[in-house]
Design goal:
473 residues; alpha/beta; FAD/NAD(P)-binding domain; 19 strands
Length: 473
């Protein structure tokens, strides 16, 4: 628990990054106000401010762990409500670089939950905090500052009620969590500050989501089927299924990273988080998990019992962003159509990963090591350790004939998952099959191809399946 630092904090944006910021600010400020353009629903429903909310989302292993730190019991709460859960590798068929990873226990949680449901539960938890207030249907007009413009003192907002006038919400701290459309670079320029430089990787991604009804044995008992794209096979499809609605398209032109950590000057009383700092290629499913880890970083700054200093905070969250950004950019540069500098290091690492994934088709240790890295639980350098590299070398010299990646004792693996997130008593008992009856299958396309349907997300919950463009962040 942080000590009280100030009277009021204002969060711009009520998406995942904003909600998580509000959660940790509530421990350090007397009053926290969250502002959003949308009318925020009480239930877990789609909303206009999350345009990719209808597409498949992924909560990476580190993201699930971070959410549990911020909201203890959240995973168990979702499982009780019927969200499928299991082991990240034991209960999933994962195909990367054309190889099916060997299934094995990892003790990492696979939680299959839609973006509206997850965000709705998080928003409900934040709404329950006594010192947090939501202002929805509000436009943020700009920032208020001291006369010397060295400090932000609040946000100027315009409520969408008829006849409403601009009003000032004074604040000791303002956090911009408005996502890709963040106006902070423009506001900085207007205040006489240099806006942050951008790193961009243009990927030209397009995909669509559609709901299907599959036969009951479509996934053979697994919770998830994920088929990663390759340059030779950038798209996938579905057959023998009944469509239940029309496709919903989505386009993502480029991954963008704003380099706030490199600025020499920045006003006090203002921080930036989430997609407003870095928006990732959504097929890697990193956005929500990175936002959760950034919130834990903010919590550590607040625990110092002083107002977070922007430059120090930006340096720290840059370290949070570095790893997923490197993973995403490295993966994108495998595709010839993606613009970007392919250094000898990038080429060497990608060639090594191709060999590692081939070996991981029959080596459960390598498969586990890989999903720990992509789940942001372990650093990429862990895949270069001598013991790992030796296994890759041996597999390259003596390739195994059996690469099916089957898991033995699947039922025992599933039954043990309850130990990973014991259900709090107030949520009641969980039946033996809770959370494992829904099925998801994803065959997502790679970047820099056309806007044809690329992915399949088959959810057997309520007898439905969804065809989707890869996990969105």
């Amino acid at each position: 628990m942080s000590r009280q630092i100030g009277d009021r904090a204002v969060v711009l944006g009520a998406s995942m990054a904003g909600l998580l910021a509000a959660r940790v600010l509530a421990d350090a400020y007397t009053q926290v106000t969250v502002i959003d353009r949308d009318e925020l629903p009480e239930a877990s429903t789609h909303r206009r401010g999350v345009p990719h909310g209808r597409h498949l989302h992924a909560l990476l292993a580190r993201g699930q762990q971070a959410l549990e730190e911020l909201f203890p019991g959240l995973t168990a709460e979702l499982v009780v409500e019927g969200m499928p859960a299991g082991d990240l590798l034991a209960d999933a068929r994962l195909y990367f670089s054309g190889h099916r990873l060997r299934q094995a226990r990892t003790e990492l949680v696979l939680l299959c939950v839609s973006r509206p449901v997850l965000e709705g539960h998080v928003r409900g938890r934040v709404r329950a905090l006594p010192n947090v207030t939501f202002f929805d249907r509000c436009d943020v007009v700009g920032l208020a500052t001291t006369p010397d413009r060295r400090r932000v003192t609040g946000a100027r907002v315009l409520r969408r009620d008829d006849g409403s006038a601009e009003e000032l919400l004074a604040a000791d701290l303002v956090i911009d969590a408005t996502g890709r459309g963040s106006r902070t670079p423009v506001w900085l320029d207007a205040l006489g500050y240099t806006p942050p430089k951008q790193d961009q990787v243009r990927i030209g991604l397009g995909y669509a989501t559609r709901t299907y009804r599959l036969r009951r044995d479509a996934l053979g008992g697994d919770l998830l089927l994920l088929h990663g794209a390759t340059p030779q096979r950038p798209r996938g499809g579905i057959r023998d299924a009944e469509p239940l609605d029309d496709p919903v398209p989505f386009r993502f032109p480029a991954s963008v990273r704003h380099r706030y950590e490199r600025l020499d000057r920045f006003p006090d009383g203002l921080l930036v988080m989430g997609d407003a700092v870095c928006s990732f290629n959504p097929i890697y499913g990193q956005g929500m998990s990175v936002a959760a880890v950034e919130a834990l970083t903010l919590r550590r700054h607040l625990e110092r019992a002083t107002e977070p200093r922007p430059r120090r905070f930006f340096r720290d969250i840059a370290r949070v962003v570095d790893m997923p950004w490197a993973i995403a950019v490295g993966g994108d540069l495998v595709f010839p159509g993606v613009q970007g500098r392919r250094t000898p290091k990038v080429r060497l690492v990608n060639a090594y990963l191709a060999r590692l994934l081939a070996a991981a088709a029959h080596d459960a240790s390598l498969a586990s090591a890989f999903v720990r890295v992509t789940g942001l639980v372990a650093r990429p350098e862990s895949l270069l350790r001598p013991g790992v590299a030796l296994r890759v070398l041996r597999a390259s010299l003596h390739p195994a004939a059996d690469t099916r990646g089957d898991l033995e004792h699947r039922d025992a693996a599933r039954s043990a998952m309850v130990d990973l997130f014991p259900v709090p008593e107030h949520l009641g008992p969980v039946s033996a099959g809770a959370g494992v009856h829904n099925r998801h299958a994803v065959d997502h396309g790679g970047p820099a191809s056309d806007s044809s349907i690329r992915s399949i997300h088959c959810a057997r919950h309520a007898g439905a399946a969804t065809r989707s463009g890869g996990p969105a962040a």
